[in-house]
């Protein structure tokens, strides 16, 4: 390995607001997440984020398991840490040999009542987790009787590896479509390369708006609160932005839903203005910027021609602007050529908004073709 080394994020998620339920608190709880390692390295550090919390969070104990050995995760030399509301904490460096293709387990235990608010739902072939009763941070095989699967990623939002300087990360920023499978498939396609894929996506989120009521608060923060918090990432040099569909489909009018007024519907110029702000901020970070077009929506429950017209106008701007390094035309890749308003049937999950597994794979292929083609 070269002597030229740096920190590069090898895994990451956004932090959003967990769905509000009476059981928003947990106690005597271990969370464990399997992490795929795409790079070689000699040290690891782990970040925990309570950005959306309203109370402090105390992690009693944390561990990293790799190559049949447990490693203590320490914070300033101490076993646990306290994360104040709205703040984040990075662990001490962990001296451990990491090889591309390894899987590590990150586990952390919360002994006392803890507000489980800062979280994000993420899915895909590399995205899973479990929660368990009791301190299981150094238990290899947690008994099935005391654990269950979860798609919620609580607090854990980034893992970086000390690796060769030539390695880089690409950030995938967006909403539920990006919170689902395609970034994981892109990671697998880049296997053996020198790039990691870091997902920063929250379901229901919009570029320009956010909800100010408990019913919809789990739909996440607006872009101006998310982008500068999520996108700066160790070792990243590129961001892929794919967002805007929720700005278009959410407003239905107060006669239908008091929390979703039609006044929330942006004009094409407003929506493009939000995207331009993203691009400007990414440039200040020194990133290359790729933007993904919005997918078809015919058949979605709030579909209307005016919404599709707005989607097309937004997509056309993305396809023709010289403000970005490239367009990733997800729309063209997944639409039905005979009816571009709709998905090709095999790419539709059935709700006419989110892709199927085959659709997500096609999205990853489309992104891969552009990224690799631009880096030959």
Explained architecture:
The chain contains eight helices and 25 strands. The strands form seven sheets. The protein has a six-stranded antiparallel β-sheet with strand order 8-7-12-4-15-16, with no helix packed on it. β22, α6 and β23 form a beta-alpha-beta unit. α2 packs across α8. 47% of the residues are buried. The mean pLDDT is 96.
Which helices and strands occur, and which strands form pairs?
Blueprint: E1 5-12, E2 16-17, E3 25-26, E4 29-36, E5 41-49, E6 57-59, E7 61-66, E8 69-72, E9 81-83, E10 88-90, E11 94-98, E12 103-110, E13 114-115, E14 118-121, E15 129-133, E16 147-150, E17 152-154, E18 156-164, E19 168-174, H1 176-179, H2 182-189, E20 195-201, H3 223-230, E21 236-242, H4 245-249, H5 268-284, E22 288-292, H6 305-320, E23 326-328, H7 330-334, E24 335-336, E25 339-343, H8 357-373
Parallel strand pairs: 19-20, 19-21, 21-22, 22-23
Antiparallel strand pairs: 1-18, 2-14, 3-13, 4-12, 4-15, 5-10, 5-11, 5-18, 6-9, 7-8, 7-12, 14-17, 15-16, 24-25
Helix pairs in contact: 2-8
Give the key terms.
five-stranded antiparallel β-sheet, 376 residues, 25 strands, 21% helix
- The count of strands amounts to 25
Percent of residues in helices comes to 10-25%
Rg, Cα atoms, Å: 21 Å
Helix count equals: 8
Using the alpha-carbon principal axes, give the shape: globular
pLDDT < 50 runs, ≥5 residues: none
Give the overall average pLDDT.
96
Output the strand order for the largest sheet.
8-7-12-4-15-16
